[in-house]
Amino acid sequence: MDKIKFATVWLAGCSGCHMSFLDLDEFLFDIAEAVDMVYSPVASDIKDYPDNVDVCLVEGAIANEENLKLLLEVRRKTKFLISFGDCAVTANVPAMRNMLNGSDPVLKRCYLELSDHGGQIPKDPEIVPPLLEKVQPIHHVVEVDLFLPGCPPSAQRIKNAIAPLLKGEKPIMEGRDMIKFG
Ligand code: SF4
């Protein structure tokens, strides 16, 4: 049987959800047996998101143009996309800047007003992706197949969600243990 092509993606998040994924400990060996990890910030140095990915965990909100471009590519190339953690599901912490009415006030506050001297706003789209005006959860932009909330989701919750997928079954996301935020 072909192995499941598995990926994880890191958008605008603190990487805490990926750290929780690494807390799976010995279950990581079961995952390694069952999948080909084809793209992930924690497992390899593959630069391009491949075609025909079976399952992808997407951590983080959409906060900049790079996030948006990658998410659209991920959706196009992925069969089962999981919104992974509260930043992906609700936009959570990255969306706190939405209260400031756009990206300009945030950039001015960070890089000019709080600068000791000679502050300047970084502007190089090749190096610093431009911020979007509003931070959004990923399901506002693409279709999501499963929501896996938590900040971060506990390792047990991640295991409960992934284990059925490895057997070709859809996980049951019910009850406090599986769908509580925070
Ligand atoms: S949901 Fe929490 S742990 Fe995960 S990326 Fe966001 S802030 Fe970090």
UniProtKB/TrEMBL annotation:
GO terms for molecular function: DNA binding; iron-sulfur cluster binding; oxidoreductase activity. Residues 14-163 form the NADH:ubiquinone oxidoreductase-like 20kDa subunit domain. Keywords: Homeobox, Oxidoreductase. The keyword Oxidoreductase applies. InterPro entries: Hydrogenase_assoc-protein, NADH_UbQ_OxRdtase-like_20kDa, NiFe_Hase_small_N_sf. SUPFAM superfamilies: HydA/Nqo6-like (SSF56770). PANTHER family: COENZYME F420-REDUCING HYDROGENASE, GAMMA SUBUNIT, HYDROGENASE SMALL SUBUNIT. This is NAD(P)-dependent nickel-iron dehydrogenase subunit HoxY. It comes from Cyanobacterium aponinum (strain PCC 10605). The lineage of its organism: Bacteria, Bacillati, Cyanobacteriota, Cyanophyceae, Oscillatoriophycideae.
